[in-house]
Amino acid sequence: MAEVKNILLCGVGGQGIILASKILANGLINAGYDVKMSEVHGMAQRGGSVTTQVRFGEKVHSPIIGKGQADILVSFETMETSKWLDYVKPQGQVVMNDYEIPSAPILSGAATYPTGIIEDISQKIHTTVLKGSELASQIGNIKTMNVIIVGALVKAMGLDASIDWDKVIKANVKEKFVDINIKAFKLGMDQVK
């Protein structure tokens, strides 16, 4: 693969975005790609925005994705999708978690959570919407929501055939959580047609 692919992951602190990015990056490295990753934590511990950028290809010179350059935006929280949408290429796509985490202004009553985000984004760009919290609850651990989303991303980008994702998950999560995270990953893949 000569062309560099750009993946932007966004969400809110505490959603496991960094782990999700590490699973993704390690899988791509194992497949022989040159991979660069950057993280922006912001006010992550206070429920603030978190983004990671993963770029991969034959040779990647920088970890940074500019506006209009992401092949895919992976959003772990609904409102965060809107904030980062202008980073996606016109022909790009979005994998979006239908999950709302109210910001501090919303919690204080100074603002309201916007409505119609999913419908608006789906009209603008190819979008796959997941109900990550419901799926994670089905398998018995809400904390697997991030790995469900990674599974959907992998399938959406066609990265599911050549990489041993079970091995990657085993290398990146605690042993007692390996089986449920493998199950979560496969459940996420099943959500993308």
Termini separation: 24 Å
The domain count comes to: 1
The number of distinct helices, counting runs of at least 4 residues, comes to 8
Low-confidence stretches: none
Helicity level: 25-40%
CATH superfamily heading: Pyruvate-ferredoxin oxidoreductase, PFOR, domain III
Structural class: alpha/beta
Largest sheet: 6 strands, mixed
- What does the oligomeric state look like here? single chain
Under CATH, the topology is which?
Pyruvate-ferredoxin Oxidoreductase, domain 3
- Gyration radius, to the nearest Å? 16 Å
Mean pLDDT, to the nearest integer, reads 93
Strand content: 15-25%
Task: Give the tally of β-strands.
Answer: 6
CATH C-level? Alpha Beta
Order of helices and strands: EHEEEHEHHEHHHH
Description:
The protein is of the alpha/beta class. The model has no long low-confidence stretch (mean pLDDT 93). The chain has helices at 17-30, 78-84, 104-108, 117-124, 132-138, 145-156, 165-172, 178-190, and strands at 5-12, 34-40, 49-57, 70-75, 88-97, 126-130. It has a single domain (5-190), classed as Pyruvate-ferredoxin oxidoreductase, PFOR, domain III (Pyruvate-ferredoxin Oxidoreductase, domain 3, 3-Layer(aba) Sandwich), CATH 3.40.920. The two termini are 24 Å apart. Helix 2 (78-84) links the parallel strand 4 and strand 5. Strands 2-3-1-4-5-6 form a six-stranded mixed beta sheet, with helices on both faces. The longest helix is centred in the N-terminal third of the chain and has 14 residues, at 17-30.
